[in-house]
Amino acid sequence: MKDQELGQLIARVKEGALSRRSFIKKAAAVGLAAPFANQLLAFNGVAMANATLPYKPTKAGGGGPLKMLLWQAPTLLNPHFASGTKDQIASRVFFEPLAGWDKDGNLFPQLAAEIPSRANGGLSADGKEVIWKLKQGVKWHDGKPFTADDAVFTWEYAADPATAAYTTGSYKDIKVEKIDSHTIKVIFQNSTPFWADAFVGVAGMILPKHLFADYKGAKSREAPTNLKPVGTGPYRFVEFKPGDILTAERNPDYHVANQPHFDTLEVKGGGDAVSAARAVLQTGEYDYAWNLQVEDEILKRMETGGRGKISAVPSGNIEFIMLNTTDPWTEVDGERSSIKTKHPTLTDPKVREAMNLLIDRDSIQKFIYGRGGTATASFVNAPAKFKSTKLKYEFNIDKANKILDEAGYKRGSDGMREKDGKKLKYVFQTSINAPRQKCQQIIKQACQRAGIDIELKSITASVFFSSDVANPDTYTKFYADMQMYTTTQPQPDPERFLNQFVSWEIANKQNKWLGRNVSRYTDKAADEAYTAAQKELDPDKRAALLIKVNEIFCEAHVIQPLLSRTAVAAAANNLFHDHSGWDSDTWNLAAWYRG
Questions:
Q1: What is the DSSP letter of 542?
Q2: What global pTM score does this model have?
């Protein structure tokens, strides 16, 4: 579809001659997925649709307890330190952004009075400014008023390098000004097509200035409210035992009428995905279980229990393998996997190419994940406009052997390969759950047939995904040769998702290992394409630039995608919940109710 035709269709939607649904169908027919089509409409002044869960209760409270299971247990409650999805979900119980993403990729106002658009004056024509009008009458849980000062402070807090926030990439290159007590202006250095990043979704949760002002910068980890949050959300903090349980109570002053429905909330951590699924689908002990990375055949059998149902929604999440091109076994200046080192063998692109051929993605999908994922060679898979059509995958042990033979890696008496005294022997780590351990075994067996020795390491999920800077086994420290996990695409646009591939986001000791680039691999062309995409207003040119970033890392085989993940959860049959694959599971928790 040419830009002129697209413009004509958008004009018809603005005039009321074409429905939003019809526009999205026409866009889908030429490869523009619904989230991207919605963003085009928003940028051109068409208000976002409300695709969230219809809320039926006529009063707040009265719903009794809501019990949730996060089998990867939360360990902290400051959203700006939450590198793990489980900590983002727990933080969102208390803290709210200006807007969130619903399941259809629509922006939905939360602490904002409305979504900025060209029509309401919120978006400048040059793409350099966004004006957010904040909701009036909102109170923090301690009774203090929520104002523009809190939003401006959150920007200062997250943008400060000394704070070492996980979200710093969303704030460090912008400026935020207070216009009045309930209006702020976000100013970009260049024209910015994807403006809905700062203050939006998982990166956007706003902190109370009066409680965090003394803990900005180097003292950020000392704030008592990192573990005892005071937010604006639907539930107030009661108790938190990191790695175990979180309890909360209904916020009687919540800023949405008749919400929330439930009187208390319990978020239980620990266990595993199978037991979490069973507790909802079979025993009915819990109402909701998140991230059911469970073999699909097992889930189907559990659903016959009659207590609950599987909720599976599209997402941009990706299960993938990352190869370490730094040396995880040599310490330099107090850190391993330092960018000052090079891996003895994984810096060789031929070794990485061979490794990529040793992954049987189709079998992993068919026999393990089923509804939970689709085999892919691309890191970005949704929206479709941003997915590479160039990247392909292949499972070919013979071809891998040939590549290693030609690269000079000879087999020893034990059948394992080496070159110049350096063996192809790797530690392969991931979190503990059955599908991942089965994937490890499949990959290990194929590697053995190619003369590569794999030692498997499985780490408790709450440890692997922890934000604890003293923990040596976190995925962000990457003290192994290779690792596997799912990374979440937090909005229906891959720009922020792809900042995992830029040089200025490398995870290291200085930023407390909260930098987004865990691989430590860099490429000048990727940096340049990413920077250009950030200010390119032409949607097709911008998509091409972001696809290039994706292709550079996948073709280097540092990143080896396995499955495009579906967001799979379990919910009690009588629970009405708002499950979005583009935001955290608790993004609209206030609207959940029991029917």
A1: H
A2: 0.75
CA pair distance 284, 307, nearest whole angstrom: 6
Is residue 68 within 8 Å of 262, Cβ to Cβ?
no
Q: Which residue has the tokens 């037991």?
A: 275
Q: What is the pLDDT of residues 233-263, one digit of tens each?
A: 999 999 999 999 999 999 999 999 999 999 9
What are the b/e assignments for 263-290, b being 16+ CB within 10 Å? ebbbbbbbbbbbebbbbbbbeeebbbbb
For the record, the structure tokens of 245 come out as: 């349980």
Q: What dihedral do alpha carbons 228, 232, 236, 237 form, nearest 10°?
A: -10
Residue 20 CB partners (closer than 8 Å, separation 6+): 13, 41, 46, 49
Cα separation, 84 vs 466, in Å, equals 6
Tokens of 28: 């889908």
Beta-strand ranges (E) seen in 87-221 are 99-101, 107-109, 129-133, 174-180, 183-188
Q: In terms of DSSP H, where are the helices of 204-326?
A: 209-212, 273-281, 296-303
Compute and round to an integer the Cα radius of gyration of the chain: 24
| 342 CB-near residues (< 8 Å, 6+ apart) | 325, 326, 327
- Ramachandran region, residue 199 (left: φ > 0; alpha: ψ -120 to 50; beta: rest): left
DSSP bridge partners of 250: 235
Closest-CA residue to 566 (of 318, 378, 392)? 318
Residue 142 CA to residue 353 CA, distance in Å, equals 56
What single letter denotes the amino acid at residue 269? G
Query: Quick one: pLDDT at residue 139?
Result: 98
3-class SS shares of the chain: helix, strand, coil, % to 5? 30, 20, 50
Closest CA to 546 of 535, 556, 560, 562: 535
Question: 184 pairs with which residues across the strands?
Answer: 132, 178
**Cα–Cα dist 593/259, whole Å:** 9
Confidence of residue 492 (pLDDT cuts 50, 70, 90): confident
Give the tokens for residue 216.
């900005």
Spatial distance between the Cα atoms of 469 and 81, rounded to a whole number of angstroms: 11
Cβ atoms of residues 86 and 70 within 8 Å: yes
Query: H/E/C letters for each residue in 387-424?
Result: CCCCCCCCCCHHHHHHHHHHCCCEECCCCCEEECCEEC
How would you label 31-69 residue by residue, b for 16+ Cβ within 10 Å and e otherwise?
A: ebbbbbbbbbbbbbbbbbbebbbebebeebeebeebbbb
Which pLDDT score, from 0 to 100, does residue 84 have? 85
Candidates 526, 525, 522, 542; CA nearest to 534 is 542
